[in-house]
Write a structure and sequence with these properties.
Layout: H1 32-60, H2 67-89, H3 93-117, H4 125-155
Length: 165
C-alpha cells in the first residue's frame, strides 16, 4: 500500500509473482504499420480521383456524347485507383510499375490533346487520335489493375498480422 504520510508517496517493492516487473510482457512495437495502411488508402483515393480526371478529360475531347462509356470508366477508376495504392503498399512492383507506366502514357495522351487544342479549333484528326488513344490506354490500365488485384490476391493473399501478445 502506498504511504501517503511520507513527503512523497512511495510504493514499497513487492516480491510476489503477481507484482514482479520481470514477468510482465514487453509492450507492443510501434504502430507505424497502421499509418502506412492509412496512407495506402489515401494514396488509392487520390489515384482514383486522378484516374477519374483522366477519364473526364478524355471524354471532353470527344465530339459526340458517350455518356455510358464515361460512367463505366469512372466507376472502374474508383476501384482501380485503390487497387494501384494497394499494389504499391504491398510492394508488388512487377504489377505496379507497368500500371504506373500505362498511367503516364494515358496522361501524356491527355496532355498532347490539351496542347493540340490550344492550336486548333473545330475538327482535328490528331486531337481525335489523342482522345481515342488516351481512352484506349486508360481502359487497358483499368482492366489491367482489376486483373492485377485479383491475381495478386489469388497467388499471395493478404494475411492478418501476427498477434502482438
Amino acid at each position: 500500500m502506498v504511504d501517503f504520510s511520507a513527503p512523497a508517496p512511495v510504493e514499497p517493492k513487492r516480491e510476489d509473482w503477481l507484482h514482479d516487473q520481470s514477468q510482465r510482457p514487453e509492450p507492443p512495437e510501434s504502430r507505424t504499420r497502421l499509418k502506412a495502411e492509412q496512407l495506402a488508402v489515401i494514396l488509392g483515393g487520390g489515384l482514383s480521383v486522378g484516374f477519374a480526371a483522366l477519364a473526364f478529360q478524355t471524354w471532353a475531347g470527344w465530339d459526340n456524347v458517350r455518356n455510358l462509356g464515361l460512367i463505366i470508366n469512372v466507376s472502374l477508376s474508383a476501384f482501380s485507383g485503390v487497387t494501384l495504392g494497394y499494389l504499391l503498399w504491398r510492394q508488388k512492383w512487377q504489377w505496379a510499375v507497368p500500371a504506373l507506366l500505362l498511367a503516364l502514357l494515358a496522361l501524356a495522351f491527355v496532355g498532347m490533346n490539351l496542347w493540340r487544342a490550344t492550336y486548333t479549333e473545330g475538327q482535328d484528326n490528331l486531337r481525335d487520335f489523342f482522345s481515342v488513344a488516351g481512352g484506349v490506354v486508360g481502359a487497358v490500365l483499368l482492366v489491367y489493375l482489376v486483373f492485377a488485384y485479383f491475381w495478386v490476391e489469388a497467388t499471395d493473399p493478404t494475411r492478418a498480422p501476427e498477434p502482438e501478445m
